[in-house]
Specification:
about 180 residues; 4 helices; about 50% helix; alpha+beta
């Protein structure tokens, strides 16, 4: 009986230690590592593409809204600005602010910041003639913008909110800023 068990163990050892099995195990290991690298790279590329696409779409919305608000802001038509802001904000988790050239909120789709100065890095960049700008922020539990979100390290970020600022021009002059906030 012991002789049969010992003979089976010896056959299994010689079978597993053969060069054929070593090559097969090395081949499977290399294939699995290569597959993992390709999968991780593909996930990263698709994520970057989707993120960039979302940024482009939201920038386009902000720029289109700024061109719509141009005539209403130059004529100080608060009703037309409010209706346009409400219409744009009703399409999801978004908010529209219209600032004059001094950074004072003329129209807020939520009617919370009307008449207040909106001090934000992206809006200041646009007011200083820097062109359209955007940034991402972490929102606190109440939904208020708390701090800039670290896109490289998402630890502690509860909800990321994009803020897009686009200049509002009338006859080539900067008359205000449209701020589009999107979650």
């Amino acid at each position: 009986m012991w002789a049969i068990i010992l003979q089976i163990k010896t056959k299994i050892k010689t079978f597993l230690y053969s060069i054929r099995w070593k090559i097969l195990i090395a081949y499977l290991l290399i294939i699995s590592i290569a597959f993992s690298v390709v999968a991780a790279t593909l996930i990263q590329l698709v994520g970057d593409y989707m993120f960039n696409q979302r940024v482009r779409d939201d920038q386009r919305v902000a720029e289109n809204l700024s061109s719509i608000m141009s005539e209403a802001l130059s004529s100080l038509d608060a009703n037309a600005m409010l209706l346009s802001a409400l219409d744009a904000s009703s399409e999801g988790l978004s908010r529209v602010l219209v600032l004059d050239r001094y950074g004072v909120v003329q129209v807020d789709a939520y009617s919370e910041l009307n008449g207040r100065r909106f001090e934000n890095a992206e809006a200041i960049t646009v007011l200083n003639g820097g062109g359209a700008d955007y940034g991402f922020y972490d929102t606190d539990d109440t939904g208020a913008i708390a701090r800039p979100a670290a896109l490289t390290s998402l630890t502690g970020v509860r909800a990321m909110t994009g803020l897009y600022a686009a200049p509002i021009y009338n006859d080539g002059d900067l008359i205000g800023v449209l701020v589009y906030i999107s979650q």
